[in-house]
Amino acid sequence: MQYENAYNFLLPKLQHELPSWVTYHTAAHTRSVLNSAITLAKAELVEGEDLILIKTAALFHDAGFLHQSDGHEELSCRIAEEHLPRFGYSPEQIARVCRIIMATRIPQAPVDHLGRIMADADLFYFGTDEYDQTSAKLLEELKQSGKQKTASEWLLMQTEFLTAHQYFTESAKKMLDEKKADNLRKINARLESSIQAHHESSPRQLVLDSMLAFAGVMIAAIALKLFLVPNHFFDGGITGISLLVHEIYDFNLGLVILLFNLPLIIVSYYSIGQRFALRTLMAVILLGICLMLIPMYALTADKLLICIFGGAFLGIGIGLIMRTGSALDGIEVLAVYTLKRTSFTITEIILGINIVIFTIAGFRFGIETALYSILTYFTATRCIDYVVEGLQAYTGVTIVSGNSEAIKYQLVNKLGRAITVYKGERGFLPGKFEVSAECDIIFTVITRLELRKLKNLVSEVDPKAFVFANTIKEASGGLIKRRHSH
Q1: What is the pLDDT of residue 482?
Q2: What pLDDT does residue 483 have?
């Protein structure tokens, strides 16, 4: 095997013929991986023919970038198969070189000792002081090749990748794990700073949020004083409880709404955050003031118009306030607090509270009023969903395909979405029950507007892929952008 001749043939090509957008997978990167592979191979007591083979694989592992980035590992193998015979490599040796090269494909899955060394050498920089400088070159290459990443997206991607990554060889673990953990801590700190800076509102955003909150409060107040209250209609949640108390005891509605929400605002201060609690408190106080200033006047006596338009205005108002990161109704805070002490879901808790409200309304004011109030609540809920989520409502998509690797690439790099992969089996068809094969089941979350684009991307790779979508109705960990928030 004439390794030196192969080196003198390929390295100049990498130095002079790579596309201009390649800033990471350069000749310098190849030399770096080659040196790392030699270091790890010697630490792992690899010598003789095996050492030459791993050096050759390191030399050729990114040669595919001479032509394209997609599937460059397979292209690198083809280039090795084309040129290595004239440097004295046998077909068996070339096959081993290609197997070692394929160990660098992400996600890494080396099948032998030399592949594990090569996989660790390719990501050797994770555990070195050169991590920041090297990763910056990779980010620049992604941008130059059209795979744009924002600073926050890049930090998040690095965090996820380094957290999931593990070196395969004991030598790499001893040399690199401690520094890699240090690099991960630094990235996490930058990510936290980036998230905090993102959430800090600019003066312009504060003005826009204030205007939106004021508009939402006014619309909700109009719904209450011109539609619901004059006609003795009710709603769900804390607003519904306040309306019941107002009707039964004739207390001031604005003050009752404030008093009932106040304990839940205090709870949200500790369970959600200061920003949410303070904004919600200001919105509730503003609603109370508006309810005092706006005179009560029944715009219509038609019960169907009242429940539809009264519910719609109330839902639009609450939805606009939720868009600013606050709320007018603390019912979900109560539901989350109760959730920790029962086995019921948040939706079931909210439903139970509302059933009590409408049952009391039915006994006190008649079954017809209670039924129209339920319709009012339903209308308000749908309007909240539309205002908060609109056309961007989230959809979960599951994809089962025999060509999952290419589909993963399309979703992450072309659609720009994170994915979750489950290990499963496909097959078990009628008449062929015994025929099955392992596969990756891909799950991702997109907006409704992206669904057609996703299907087109999947169809390009595998027209026979099984794709199904479902609306995401509830997810733990958040309060604001969730259905049944009212």
Answers
A1: 40
A2: 38
The answer to whether 391 touches 451, Cβ cutoff 8 Å, is no
In the chain, residues under CATH classification 1.10.3210.10 are 3-199
Task: Return the closest-CA partner of residue 314 out of 231, 389, 381, 223.
Answer: 223
pLDDT < 50 regions, the chain? 391, 474-486
Q: Which pLDDT belongs to residue 204?
A: 79
Q: CB–CB of 151/194 below 8 Å?
A: yes
Gyration radius from the chain CA atoms? 31
- Whose structure tokens read 């409200």? 357
Cβ neighbours of residue 381 closer than 8 Å, sequence gap 6 or more = 236, 315, 483, 484, 486
Give the closest residue to 169 by CA, choosing from 34, 40, 38, 35: 40
- pLDDT score at 149: 62
Work out the burial of residue 95: count CB atoms within 10 Å of its CB; fewer than 13 is exposed, 13-18 middle, 19 or more buried.
middle
pLDDT at 480: 32
Continuous H helices in 147-302: 151-164, 170-199, 203-223, 237-249, 253-271, 274-293
Give pLDDT tens digits for 314-336. Answer: 999 988 988 887 888 777 666 55
What pLDDT sits at residue 484? 36
Q: Which residues contact 326 (CB under 8 A, 6 or more apart)?
A: 213, 276, 279, 280, 282, 283
Closest among 66, 70, 102, 103 to 83, alpha carbons compared: 66
Q: How far is CA 119 from CA 100, 109, 426, in A?
A: 8, 8, 29
pLDDT at site 404:
84
CATH 3.30.360.10, applies to 393-471: no
Phi/psi at 446 (5° precision): -135, 175
In the chain, ranges of CATH 3.30.70.60 domains: 393-471
* Third-level CATH fold of 3-199: Hypothetical protein af1432 (1.10.3210)
Beta bridge partners of 105: none
Give the separation between CA 288 and CA 70, rounded to whole angstroms. 60
Q: Are strands 394-400 and 466-471 parallel, antiparallel or unpaired?
A: antiparallel
- pTM of the entire predicted model: 0.50
Residue 346 near residue 474, CB atoms below 8 Å: yes
Token couple for 264: 């839940």
* Residue 11, SS3 per DSSP: helix
What integer pLDDT is reported at residue 201 of this predicted model? 55
The answer to whether residues 60 and 79 touch, using CB atoms and an 8 Å cutoff, is: yes
- In this predicted structure, what is the pLDDT of residue 299? 92
